[in-house]
């Protein structure tokens, strides 16, 4: 018998809670993410430069060019060869942690819904813990791990933070799969009568 998406509301919300707790522990209690972001050696000079440059909120690449034709310009080529290369993200005001936590939770709900939808296509109510865990776990691992790899390839995230994010994605995905496995709506099968009874 097929499983409807609405039947999976408990594993969806359960996976969101478990991932929220695991992410909070990973970023606030465990030490491995603490050195993912470095502090600029001369931060005051950098901040003065950014302020005086009137850089608006957004993301920037340096050296920058707007199209491939600019790469033919000798001055642009010289800047690329000389380096350094990097990206800069700027936002105005203090980070809003409350808003960001809410948006992250909404993202995790969306992930849970997509994982659940895939599971309704592949699994039925006869699925046991192992089947539900394997399918939803790998779907969630793919979602939590593969989304950021392209940015890492193109924008130079260092290896250690990349591996930390990858490990976190694997843990979040496997925890999600475990929740789906434990809360999978099993078919209520009638008891098989005893032979000769």
Describe the structure.
Helix 4 crosses helix 5 and helix 5 packs antiparallel against helix 7. Strands 1-2 form a two-stranded antiparallel sheet. By secondary structure, it is mainly α.
Count, helices: 7
- Strand content bin: 5-15%
**Strand order in the largest sheet:** 1-2
Distance between the termini: 28 Å
Percentage of residues assigned to helices:
55-70%
Q: What's the pLDDT, averaged over the residues? A: 87
Q: How many β-strands, per DSSP?
A: 2
- Rg, alpha carbons: 24 Å
Let me know the largest β-sheet.
Answer: 2 strands, antiparallel
Helix-strand makeup class: mainly alpha
Question: Which stretches are poorly predicted, pLDDT < 50 over at least 5 residues?
Answer: 189-194
Describe the SSE topology:
Elements: H1 9-28, H2 43-52, E1 58-62, H3 74-82, E2 86-90, H4 97-122, H5 129-146, H6 149-155, H7 159-182
Antiparallel strand pairs: 1-2
The gist of it:
The chain is mainly alpha-helical. The protein has helices at 9-28, 43-52, 74-82, 97-122, 129-146, 149-155, 159-182; strands at residues 58-62, 86-90. The protein has a two-stranded antiparallel sheet with strand order 1-2.
Question: What are the defining features of this structure?
Answer:
2 strands, 7 helices, 5% strand, two-stranded antiparallel ribbon, 58% helix, 197 residues, mainly alpha
